Amino acid sequence: MSGEDAPAQQQNAEEQKQQQQQQETKTPAESPKTESKPDPPPSGASTEAAAADTDTPAPAEEKAPEEDTFSYRALVLTGYGGYDKVKLQVKKGKPALKSGEVMVRVKMCGLNFADLMARQGLYDRLPSPPVTPGMECSGIIEAVGEDVTDRKVGDKVLVLNRSGMWQEVVVVATTHTFLIPEGMSFEEAAALPVNYITAYLMLFDFGHLRPNQSVLIHMAAGGVGIAATQLCKTVNDVTLFGTASASKHEVIGQGGVTHPIDYRTRDYVEEIRKISPKGLDIVLDPLGGSDTHKGYNLLKPMGKLISYGAANMLAGQKKNLFAVAKTWYQQFSVHTLSLIQGNRSVCGFHLGYLDSETELIAQAMAAVVDLQGKIKPRIDSTYHLEQVGDAMRRMQERNNIGKIILTTEPMKEEEKKEEAKKDEEKKKDDKKKDDKKKEDKKKDDAKKEEKKEEKKKEEAKKDDKKAEEKKEEAKKEEN
Amino acid sequence: MSGEDAPAQQQNAEEQKQQQQQQETKTPAESPKTESKPDPPPSGASTEAAAADTDTPAPAEEKAPEEDTFSYRALVLTGYGGYDKVKLQVKKGKPALKSGEVMVRVKMCGLNFADLMARQGLYDRLPSPPVTPGMECSGIIEAVGEDVTDRKVGDKVLVLNRSGMWQEVVVVATTHTFLIPEGMSFEEAAALPVNYITAYLMLFDFGHLRPNQSVLIHMAAGGVGIAATQLCKTVNDVTLFGTASASKHEVIGQGGVTHPIDYRTRDYVEEIRKISPKGLDIVLDPLGGSDTHKGYNLLKPMGKLISYGAANMLAGQKKNLFAVAKTWYQQFSVHTLSLIQGNRSVCGFHLGYLDSETELIAQAMAAVVDLQGKIKPRIDSTYHLEQVGDAMRRMQERNNIGKIILTTEPMKEEEKKEEAKKDEEKKKDDKKKDDKKKEDKKKDDAKKEEKKEEKKKEEAKKDDKKAEEKKEEAKKEEN
């Protein structure tokens, strides 16, 4: 475990300057006036916050900084687009605490598919840029607002929020924090809320999973996929079908997937029908588009299809209008009469739209924490805030097995230099890829043109043949 | 309880003749050749059946009849249309028993909404006429086929089947029979399968009903409505909204409906929003059409809408093309993106499409029977087979509170005479109603015509006024 100590603020500011030069981020002076941002609400220097601060035992090695020098690093989505749209910036001024709120010094943040959608402007739950993304983190309570009785300074908590979690300091309603149970690391805690609450509510509330049932999990090596697998294993004799590329089959098989299917080389519908001819009890569908249709048709009587995303919309780093339009066009729509005749259920789930349902979330969180021992988040990799682009790329290209985590621990100097080199290589690589794509397109176009020509010729031949046949028929008739 | 003894066959034949004269049914000679009917499969005189029959202790007062004189009364849907399309006929010949089948001497049959739909040709699970309708009955096992080990002659059973239950003798797979628990009458047993399994699977499988949740039950005084109310009461602190006409409120209130709503005089959506501003956890929707839209919009996050019929299609005795088209046109269709953003579930249920799911049904039936004591079917009324028209009319006009039952016990002579009188009166009444409708329509048309005229006159006046105004304006401009 890393990052147990809060980073020293002054050191951060230093690093920030260097880092800006490397990553072309804005200078601190240009950092967005967070005044207008809804989440978390900051302020200049409120007396409550100051009072709370002096009460706080300094968790850092150095003394707590003065209010006016209070600053912290934050990832900021500066506009919709590619990986480089998320920049590391420094926010200044100590956030004020309202009644019922707490301030958390963040250790680890979780990366989710919704964050990728958000960056492309495909997720309407994130306020407009500039805004700090991130739905979950773990850390230590640094200050508590008025009327907060269930949390105290020093508590280790995990946090679930609509947005704003990818920064070193967050202010949230205490109802959005949950105590980290004994024996759970900050990484694991940051990996828990979104994936496990999502999987839990889908499987046990909408899905009503019971022993001897069968479940299909797409992207079985992803965060929700692994959470769902572990939760299915808490029920006896559940048959699990999981799609993932072949290289991940060993891991997901060990994790509990009964039948891993390589969706890149096999028709998963066919594979499932071979093993389970009657179909499935539950289909978890994060893909959308044509895969939702396939999932629906795989349902047994009393089966449930649970749609929780449209990952098919993500094709590349930037918004791909064709992929979006195709996924949207193919998006599943169902008539109640079809549901009645099939005795089927179609459900939609997205945790991002449940942020006001604090009681529901708290119950699900408690249920998930109660299962500790039976479940354990699998961490794929941990990136520094500076490396958020790489982290996003790894998820989007589906190279991860388990959860991708961002740590607020600052990068070391040597790491940074190496990173800079890698960045250069990546840029070259991206350019090569782009060039190759263009070339391939040209070749494709040429081929298509050739084919068209051939087709035309063939059709012309057919027409000639027909004409001849007609002539012959006419002759016959004459005879 | 009536009809404990099996009716004597010869007496039945006698009665049948008289009854035909009253109800204008076909003569027995014209009774449909059941050879071609899929369900139940009869035969001329198979030796197995004969053997089984001689083994059977004669349950009737008279001696068991010879095979070739074996006959039984059956209700037969002779074609799609009004109440008179279901006729009482006599079937001849003893049904053969295949391996795994049992023959049941029927005591009581249940009436369901699907039977009304079927009569109008709106239910595709009933084979084409001529066919015996009916999805449930109770009775006593009279013979068992080969390989039947779990049932014996004399067992009291309830039966759930796709169709064919409205007759004195039925032959079904043993898996479609369930032992009637101690202390349950034949009426109650016949009222149990369709309504309670439907309500059970909807509330607990699709709905995942839990304490402190809220449920809307339409047609709360109907068979499924009362079953659902009783099942909801087995869970702590469930808030129940139930729609029914005002005259039924006392009964459904006593039964457990927290907030009865008269849908004829109130906007139920408004009433529910007043009490439960956030909406509902579960909506059971047997109506279809625009009510499904209303139900969907009433759902809380994680709410479930369960559609299980299209009662709105039934408007009158015969198929009403306008009602069908309107219900069909307004039928609900939903897009997964809407479900995702609302965190909602839409389910379809119909027991008629689950007839091959014997394990699922058996589990639900066992669960329902286990709740005996907490649940108890409410019998609205019991009709003789001869009165099936009245029974269907009572259900269709929604005059029942609870289940409508058909008994196979033959009608007494005096009753029949009274019935004949009533029939005459009803016919007159129907004619009066028709005449009144026609008259009302004439009056309405006349009124509409008047209104149109008035409107025209008013518009003419307005036009005059406008013309004058224009003139005045023109004058002003001149000045």
Break the fold down into its secondary structure elements and pairings.
2 copies of one chain form a homodimer.
Chain A: H1 9-23, H2 47-55, E1 71-77, E2 86-92, E3 101-110, H3 113-119, E4 136-144, E5 156-160, E6 169-173, E7 177-179, H4 186-191, H5 193-206, E8 214-217, H6 223-232, E9 239-243, H7 249-255, E10 259-261, H8 268-275, E11 280-285, H9 290-297, E12 299-307, H10 321-330, E13 333-335, H11 336-342, E14 345-348, H12 358-370, E15 379-384, H13 388-396, E16 403-407, H14 413-478
Parallel strand pairs in A: 8-9, 8-11, 9-10, 11-12, 12-14, 15-16
Antiparallel strand pairs in A: 1-2, 3-4, 3-6, 3-16, 4-5, 5-7
Helix pairs in contact in A: 5-6, 5-12
Question: How would you describe the overall organization of this protein?
Answer:
The structure is a homodimer of 479-residue chains. With 479 residues, the first copy, chain A, is α/β, with parallel strands linked by helices. Among the domains of chain A are: 71-190, Medium-chain alcohol dehydrogenases, catalytic domain (Quinone Oxidoreductase, Chain A, domain 1, Alpha-Beta Complex), CATH 3.90.180.10; 207-348, Rossmann fold, CATH 3.40.50.720. Helix content of chain A is 39%, strand content 19%. Chain A contains 14 helices and 16 strands. Chain A has helices at 9-23, 47-55, 113-119, 186-191, 193-206, 223-232, 249-255, 268-275, 290-297, 321-330, 336-342, 358-370, 388-396, 413-478; strands spanning 71-77, 86-92, 101-110, 136-144, 156-160, 169-173, 177-179, 214-217, 239-243, 259-261, 280-285, 299-307, 333-335, 345-348, 379-384, 403-407. In chain A, the strands form 3 sheets. In chain A, strands 3, 4, 5, 6, 7, 15 and 16 form a 7-stranded mixed beta sheet that branches. A 6-stranded parallel beta sheet of chain A has the order 10-9-8-11-12-14, sandwiched between helices. In chain A, strand 8 (214-217), helix 6 and strand 9 form a beta-alpha-beta unit. In chain A, helix 5 packs across helix 6 (223-232) and helix 5 (193-206) crosses helix 12. The N and C termini of chain A lie far apart (96 Å). The model of chain A is unreliable at 1-62 (pLDDT under 50). Chain A binds chain B through residues 201, 204-206, 208, 288, 292, 301-302, 304, 307-310, 331-350, 353-354, 357, 360, and chain B through 201, 204-206, 208, 288, 292, 301-302, 304, 307-310, 331-350, 353-354, 357, 360.
